[in-house]
Amino acid sequence: MILIIDDDIAVRTSLLLLLQNEKLPATAAATPAEALYILAAQPISLVILDLNFTIATSGREGMQLLRDIKQVNSAVPVILITGWGTIALAVEGMKLGASDFINKPWINDHLLQSVKTLLHLQENQPRHSTRQQLDQQYQLSHIIGQDPRLLDILETIGRIAPTDAPVLITGESGTGKELIAEAIHQNSLRQHKPFVKVNLGGISTSLFESEMFGHVRGAFTDARTDRMGRFEMANKGTIFLDEIGELDTSSQVKLLRVLQDRTYEVLGSSRTRTADIRVVCATNRKLEDMVQQGNFREDLFYRINLITIHLPALRERPGDIPLLVNFFIQNLQTIYHRPQLGVTPAALKWMAQLPLPGNIRQLKNLIERSVLMSRKDLLDTSDFSAQLALSAVKKGQLQLPEVGTITLDELEAMMIRKALAFHHHKIAKAAAALGITRSSLYRRLEKYHIPYDETQD
């Protein structure tokens, strides 16, 4: 049962008819006392609350009622109905536990979309399925791993994909945010419609409107032909806004209007167009901190993160690294026509211990470079460690001594001492880190007269 709370009989009647036409059971209350009585007496699955509840326009009556509702039933989702003048108050309501806010005059389809999304999320709670069960239910084969945190994410994708809930994907660079966005689209009701990717970090402020909304011929000096914007390309489908944390303040305002009203104008045209899209955003920045610093609009933040998915860094799920390595190797077998390609168990174990600050992207690049540079079909630790060291040198992360300042033997002895110290003189781990066998390390220890503890073998 949906509870509508508004003192205006016309609003109550309109919303009741709208919901009943969609076969969604609903009831209405005209006063806070009546609303709280219904909430306590009946199982209410969702509340639609107008902030300007009485003849006053401050919205404070509605805000107090929101607090009271959450005291009676903290789990019930609440949609706030608000005008532009009370957007700041609506954001305050989101902090108090409201799930969404809809602008007046509302668009029926937009309001129904929000209602159905929140009801679906209420009805579909996590079940803690196995990876096999998830693969049987959803299209997730392109996401590799079985770490419990990843399984929770895949479960969330399965629950939210059929809705139109806006999703914010966070995580370090290279953790696979785009793959998660694609999985949401592929498992949604929009899967046969366009999936449009937009890197907001690569769009300048001056080109934002033209890129996102399109332009007509003659809209500005270089507009020689009409151009379709990304929102129009994504119509009926999903738009993936990557690096949303890089968007400047003026562009944030323009984006917010589309997400609020689901309408926009093509640059150079006065005709308003409707955006029927699912919005998925991603960032590797902490938007909460940016909001506090005034660099990201708070109302936009709450508009895009009804659902937040945080991707763990690859070093936080090391058990998935061997699975990813084997997946990449299988792909490279086909790409480079080398069906015998493989990786030794020792190399898999060594890679599972790498910090990999670049996450999955860095691991993929490391494997592909190693395959290209090695003539062997069975790659060992030394093949990967050589490419990892070379990459660090290119990025300036590893400073090599100047030629003539140190001999090759001195450099090798220095690295052996560092590896021993780092791994607390455990011979096997130091050898793996250096990309050599234990017997090779023993020979070098003897060669350079480096003391070692035989009990650490």
Please name the defining characteristics of this protein.
457 residues, alpha/beta, Rossmann fold, Helicase, Ruva Protein, domain 3, 5-stranded parallel sheet, 20 helices, 16 strands, elongated
Structural account:
- This protein has helices spanning 9-21, 32-41, 60-72, 87-95, 108-123, 131-137, 148-160, 177-186, 208-213, 230-233, 249-261, 287-292, 298-304, 321-335, 345-351, 359-373, 381-394, 408-422, 427-434, 438-447, and strands at 2-5, 26-29, 46-50, 78-82, 100-103, 167-170, 195-199, 214-215, 227-228, 238-242, 263-265, 272-274, 278-283, 307-310, 342-343, 378-379.
- The chain is elongated and about 90 Å long.
- α18 crosses α19 and α19 packs across α20.
- It folds into four domains: 2-123, Rossmann fold (3-Layer(aba) Sandwich); 149-312, P-loop containing nucleotide triphosphate hydrolases (Rossmann fold), CATH 3.40.50; 324-394, Orthogonal Bundle (Helicase, Ruva Protein, domain 3); 408-456, Arc Repressor Mutant, subunit A.
- The chain is 46% helix and 13% strand.
- β4, α4 (87-95) and β5 form a beta-alpha-beta unit.
- The strands form five sheets. It has a five-stranded parallel β-sheet with strand order 2-1-3-4-5, with helices on both faces. Strands 7-10-13-6-14 form a five-stranded parallel β-sheet. It has a two-stranded antiparallel sheet with strand order 8-9.
- The model has no long low-confidence stretch (mean pLDDT 85).
- By secondary structure, it is α/β, with parallel strands linked by helices.
